[in-house]
Structures are given as C-alpha cells and as structure tokens.
Model the fold of this input.
Amino acid sequence: MKTAGKVWYIESDKEPELNRQVIVLDAPYDSEPHLTKAAEVLKSAKLIPLAESRGLEEVLMLITGSLKSALQMINAGVLPLVVLGDDELHEQRDIPEQVFFFHSFEDSLLWAASHPDGWESLEGEINDGVKAIRGGGLTAFPTETVYGLGADALNAEAVRKIFIAKERPYQDPLISHVASIDQAADLVREIPETAKRLMDAFWPGPLTLVLPKHPRVPDIVSAGNPTVAVRMPHNRIARMLIERSGTPIAAPSANSFGKTSPTTAKHVIDQLKAKFDAIIDGGACRVGVESTVLSLVSQTPVLLRPGGVTIEEIEQIVGPIEIDSGKKHKHFDSPGMFPSHYAPNTPMIVVDDPQQYRHETHIAIMLFHPPRVVYAGTVFMLSQTGSDREAAAGLYRTMREIDEGEYRLIVAERLPQTGMGIAVNDRMGRASNT
Ligand code: TXA
Ligand code: MG
Done:
C-alpha cells in the first residue's frame, strides 16, 4: 500500500494479468481507520496481499464517497464505486448509470474483492444470468428500486418457479420487465395515449403501468387478471439482462413473500439462500423502494402502490389521478396493498412524535433526520438532512440492520406525506401493520 498525495493505492500481485487490478481510495476515505479496514477486508478476501505499489499501469476501480470524483473517473475508463453519501444523494435520474452505489464502505470493498476484473467480472455474471433465464431458470438481478427475482415472462413453467421460491400466493400478479417500448407493446393489447406520455416521461424508471393484457402473456404472470403490469427499469444491468435474454422478464422483489425487500445481492442470498440459478451483484439499489404501480385500465389513472415516481410527478404529466385506498378494489388488484407486507421480524410502530419514547430502553428509533433529544434506545437515521429520497434509499437496509440487533420494538418516525415520503410511509405502515 502506498500513498500518492491524498490518494492511496492497493495493488494486486496475485497474478501478472491482475496487475491492473487496482483500487484507489479517494477522499473522504483516505483516513487511517478506513484504510486499515480496507486492508483487512481485502486480505480476508485473499485477493490482494498488501504490496508496495509498483508502477500503476491502469486504475480499474475507484471507491469514493464523492460523486464528483466518481464522475471524473468515468471518463478515465475507471469503474466508480460510490458509497451512498449523506449530502450527495442526488436525484437518481441525474446520476450516470456507470456509477455503482453501495450502502457502506465495507460493501464496496467486498464487491471489489469479488469482482477482481471489475466490469468484466460483472459481464460474466450477466451472461450467467442470461443463460439461466433462457434455460427456464431464475436469475436474481439489481434494479434501481429493489433486487428482482426474474424468469422468462413468456414461459409459464419458469414463472411458476418464482412463486415456489418466494412462497408467494398465485393470486399475486407479477410485473413484466422490458428493455424497450416495443417489447412492452408486445405484452399489451394497446398502449393508450396516457401510457405513451408516461413512458416518455418516466421510462426507463421506477413506474409500472397496468394495461390490458395480450393473450401471449401466460395467465400465471397476471394471476388470471385481464391486465398485465409492465415496467422498463432504469438500471443498466437489468436492461442488459432483458435485452440479452431476448424476452421480457417477470420479476417480483427477490425476498420471501411478505418480508423486507432486498436492496443488495447479499440481502437476496441471506433470505432466498440458493433458490435461484444465477445472481448478478450490481451493488445497492439507488431508489430503495419499489416502483409506483399505476393502473391505466379505466379513464382516470389509478395509483395502486406509491413508489419511486411520486404522485406529484405523475400528475404533472397526466393531471389528477385516483388513489386506491385498498377498499374500493378487490385485493388482488395489487396485493402489494395487502395490509401486512414488507415486514421486519422485530415488531414495529410508526409514530408522528418519537420523542415520547425517549426513555425506553432496548428499542430501535428510526428517524429521518438527526435526533433532537437524547434517546435511551438506539437511534438509526434514515437521513442526515431530512431528505425523503435518502430515507427511501436506506429504509429496507436499515430495517434489516435493526433486525440483526436484539431490539424488542422499532419506533419509526412518520415522514411528511409528500414526494417520496408517501412511499416510505406506505412501506413503514405495512411493515408495522399499524
Ligand atoms: O420496483 C419494483 O416494482 C420491483 C422490481 C423488482 O421491479 N418489483 C416488485 O414486484 O416490487 P412485486 O411483485 O414485489 O410487486 C408487484 C406489485 C404487486 O403489488 C402486484 O400486485 C402489482 O404489482 N401488480 C402486478 N401485476 C398487476 C396487475 N395486472 N394488476 C394490478 N396490480 C398488479
Ligand atoms: Mg414485493
């Protein structure tokens, strides 16, 4: 390990052709504790014995906490791994797809260690994923919202495996993921004008549209409904998988039914173990909550599930929409609206004023900004700045982290009911069933 100004390099000497396998740690991670940790993780992965840097030929990856330096490195052909920052979680749509996000510095190091050839290693995973889909198997893959568990949407037997792996009831229909609008057009009877406008505005992205189903879509995908849900994900890896598989991919979130959705590949493995044929590790999901599900079957669009595209954003394009309260429509319309869903193992309540729990011990307090009083319990912050987008990106990860501790209760602070706060409140409400 060697320092060059503010930058430290860790170089591999494992094999000659791995000489370009270099990781640069950029500010603010050039401090001693982080580097010691870096060395430990890399050593334990047996990837890189700490060595004197010998003439760096090429930098393969950059791990950084700064979006700015990540953007600079893209042009230099370097794969930037960015740790989700507190103040730098920008609009997901503004961040180039080449940037890889991680929930923690350690996660980014583990990714680097398990992808010694950077993008090439990832290509290998994508191709294995394609093979599995084409062979009628299951591939877990990243999207910008949460990880999905995918199968060929036009192969009923392959889709059945999803329900079995997730222990998901067959009445709960799946979203078909596409890589182009043409591919979506093949799955539906028609694309109405409203849908076209929404696709133009938000695709690729976290908006799922429910439209009249084409007979070529197997009934198991739509749970026997005459409609089908379609979405074009923003995540580049997801779209590569769909394109190369040459078929739309039916995929729910890659978790056991009713449980917390995964935002990293490790979350998927922890929960589903080996119930899939391939997994692509694309780091952490940027949006962190599922897509917005909007039905375009009747005159006025109906919101079935709030998500990554906000109601305000949708209404700017199509005018006022109807919000499904879950009462009017039969529950199979969108079982993501089952009252209990997305649940951690620890009991959870959602409150407007968490301060009333300040004296309680052995509880986890989930806030969306820094604490204003001292809590006897343990505080988990979803955002340093009160940002609803940042809170969404860290919600499921934090719920899992809390589940690993020994808390008797999670007290979650409700967000203002606007923007992404609506989706976060919805998920917290279902997770707690309050
Ligand atoms: O962000 C997402 O949407 C993620 C990623 C993997 O794309 N997927 C996801 O899938 O959240 P899942 O299965 O966990 O949730 C799909 C939601 C459910 O609430 C389901 O009921 C609804 O979409 N849905 C699917 N097809 C439908 C249909 N034909 N009519 C009404 N709702 C439908
Ligand atoms: Mg789900």
